[in-house]
Amino acid sequence: MATRTLIGGGFKSGLPLYKEVRNQIAQAIGGGEWRAGDALPTEKLLCMRFGVSMGTLRKAVDDLTASGVLIRQQGRGTFVARHSEDRYIFSFFHLIPNTGEKKYPNVEFLNYKLTQADEYAAGQLKVRVDSSLINITNRLSLEGAVASMDEIYLPTAMYKHMTRDTIKARSTTLYQLYQDHFDVGVIRITERLRVGNASAKCAKVLGLATGAPILQIARVAYSFNDHPVELRMSYVNTSRCEYVPDNFATDVF
Predict the structure, then answer these.
(1) Sign of the CA dihedral with 206 first, then 209, 212, and 216 last
(2) Are 68 and 107 in the same domain?
(3) Residue numbers of the domain that contains 52
(4) pTM across the whole model
(5) Which residues are bridge partners to 23 per DSSP?
(6) Which residues contact 105 (CB under 8 A, 6 or more apart)?
(7) Which tens digits make up the pLDDT trace of 222-247?
(8) CATH number (domain holding residue 120)
(9) Coil, strand, or helix at residue 41?
């Protein structure tokens, strides 16, 4: 596969050229040059900007489209993808009710508070231990049955001016809220799964006995340049639903 070490004083990593272009486009989006919903410049202008052929550019754009960063609209051009309910459920939400049909969950807000990062959260979010975090607790139901409890942790410095009312009043997914109000775009996640036992708090929320077996999911959401923007701990009652992964990066331990 062709590589390029130098173009106009730019690409020097030795990566395949289309990946260099892909990374440059992603960095431009992450830096705010193009925001969610914006159209990218024409292919001709992008080829001139990066000093590459049309084929190389299209391969880079194809890669970003496949990963959900960009979206092509026939006859209109290529746009930075916006988060939507459909994108969330089909790309990031993997719990399915026992009927087997994927549906958007009913999300019930339970609590909002400020807390401090312990060693685990600090490591996942790449912040210092004891850094200020926003902690949001939600209860998710599928087809009227409580399925999971989510404990969500956000770096306070990244989500300035987020309040309890911001979360309670939202009419979108959290990922869309991050994007629209805080310029934080989630482009991929990793999840780690384990079997655990329900704590007293978790048991109360899920309607289980304390110590009952549950599925625990630790999800980290990443923005551009692999920057972690959210840690989400989900505690799932698998008697009500199943975990069905799509084609994404998952770690199991």
Answers:
(1) positive
(2) no
(3) 17-80
(4) 0.78
(5) none
(6) 93, 95, 140, 141, 142, 147
(7) 987 789 999 999 999 999 899 988 65
(8) 3.40.1410.10
(9) coil
